[in-house]
Design goal:
about 90 residues; mainly alpha
Length: about 90
Amino acid sequence: MAKKSKKSSAKQSIPKPVVEKLAILPAIPFWKNNWIQALVLFVVAIGLYASTISFEYVLDDSLVFTKHNDVKKGFAGIPDLLTKESFAGYFGEQ
């Protein structure tokens, strides 16, 4: 039987120059590295939603927001909002 050489059985490691280059790279967060793309995305999002600022209430807003008993309770109404049907706070029943 042929003997295996020690080099072939040893684990291959990353060459030292590559490891040194990786250690030198700064840990820059994504938003700092791609600030132009983030700025463009922000401007597009603001542009899309800017026209909705002047909109009024719609038909279901009184049922869900302004006349909803659980919403009027503030933070105390959160458990009821999460456990009941969405219109139970307006109609008073499930």
